[in-house]
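Homework help board

Subject: predicted structure for assignment chain

Our instructor gave us this sequence and asked us to write out the predicted structure in token form, then describe one feature. I got the tokens but I'm not sure how to describe them. Can anyone check?
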Amino acid sequence: MKQVIVITGCGDGMGRHVAKLLAAEGHSVAGFDVDAAGIKSLDKELREIGGDHYVVPMDITDRKGILKFRDRVLERFGHVDTVLSNVGIGFFSPFEEADLEKALKCLEINVIGCSAIFQAFLPSMRERKSGKLIAMSSLVGRIPFPFESIYSASKFAITGLVASMRYEVKPFGIQVALIEPAQVSTTFAAKIHVLPKEGSPYRERAGRFIKRDDELIKTAPTPEAAAKRILKVVLAKKPAFFNQVDFMSTFFLFLNNFLPRGIRDAILVNHMDIKV
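My token output:
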């Protein structure tokens, strides 16, 4: 059965590949991204693939724009089966030195952005007594990593948001799920990896962390491979609540569930090469 899927942040990376995979299988895709050039090229590719789609350039912080987008999507397709909240930005900094204005922007985009798109489509799903709300969280949404305190906070918030909301929407036939990638070989990390300033007491360890992270990304799943895993969650009749797209996430979450905290911490510190 063909579905209508909304994807935020579909101009590049995993979101873009998921949109193309869905279109190739005959599903209808609606979405947006702040990257206007990315949306323009995606629109062209989706037209070449065939099928119905509606993609526009828009910022996730545009509340009124999101409601207008919702109205146009529902008018065009009649209903929405699944919303995949994929928009997110990273944040890398020792907490002591974090720019809290930039931190606020990260939380606004990652947490409130997800909330806004879910809120927009919830009423129509509730009326139909059917729908899925899927949020892109992260491994750091359950296992905090050093130098990513603000980003971890945003993903912990997403995990808590969706876990809490699940109780509220389940009676209306609405399912929720989280996707928790650790690393995918995109430019996501490279955009945020900035060394602390000279003289910072965190500079040397942060540098080791960045070097190690860059090494891990080289062998991480490609956006295409991750998108195939995400596609299965999006199309599943009854998706699991927690879903991983790479071995590292699955492995670390397994350890997190069973090992004492001291051992877990030692593994993480050694894995990321930040032992003092």
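Reply (TA_rk): Your tokens look well-formed. For the description, you could write something like this. The two ends are 55 Å apart (CA to CA). That's the kind of observation they're looking for.
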